[in-house]
Amino acid sequence: FFLRYMTIPAERKRLKLKEPEKYGWKPRELLASLAQIHANIFMANSEAWSAAVAADTDYYGTDPSILDHLISILTNIGTNPAVVQSIDRLRASAIEAVKNTAVDDENFEDAPEEFEDPLSCRLMKDPVKLPSGQVLDRSTILQHLLTDTRDPFSREAMTEDDLVEMPDLREQIHAWMAEKSGKAPK
After folding, report:
1. 129 bridge partner residues
2. How far apart are CA 114 and CA 126, in angstroms?
């Protein structure tokens, strides 16, 4: 959310303050910190984070150039080159995730209902069970947990540790996908 308002030129104008030092407003430091967080998460689990970023329509989906703007700003303010490189890899990976999602949406539009994520209405690739018993794709719930640490169905507190892997369902989904595309399952 903050990256959007700190990187996209039209949005940045909304964050101007007359006396930024009075409020301790240090946007360069904040932006560098947010970029470091994104880089750390990406390095820890690049596939899942790329999918989560690509799926976030409030953030990445409305203006995919957000990461291009971020890289430009980070370079201009002298951010650690390793962070900038990680963000650039995230950018490339998110672009690929968006393409893959579009292809999957087209190729697998007739997926059985139990294979679809009830929040994103997309085919799940890594289904997990929430404490409420609902099943979502891991990328969907991880994205949700970034802004709300409650189960979206029961509203009870939860963390990533509360997610239960669904290996049998995952295998069924991947087998169905392989059958539809004529390939061996992953």
Report:
1. 135, 164
2. 13
Two structure tokens written together for 33: 């910190």
Structure tokens at 123: 């085919």
Angle 54-85-46 from CA coordinates, rounded to 5°: 40
- Would you call 48 helix, strand, or coil by DSSP? helix
Burial class of residue 19, CB neighbours in 10 A (0-12, 13-18, 19+) = exposed
Which residues on neighbouring strands pair with residue 135, listed in sequence order?
129
What is the chain's pLDDT, residue by residue, as a tens digit (186 residues)? 678 888 888 888 887 788 888 999 888 999 999 999 999 999 998 888 888 888 776 667 667 788 999 999 999 999 999 999 999 999 999 888 888 777 776 778 888 999 999 998 888 999 999 999 999 999 889 888 988 999 999 999 999 999 999 999 999 999 998 888 776 555
The amino acid that residue 176 corresponds to is: W
Burial 93-119 (b: 16+ CB within 10 A, else e): bbeebbeebeebeeebeebeeebbbeb
List, in order, residues 6 or more apart from 60 with CB less than 8 Å away.
Answer: 53, 54, 66, 67, 94
Total-model pTM: 0.64
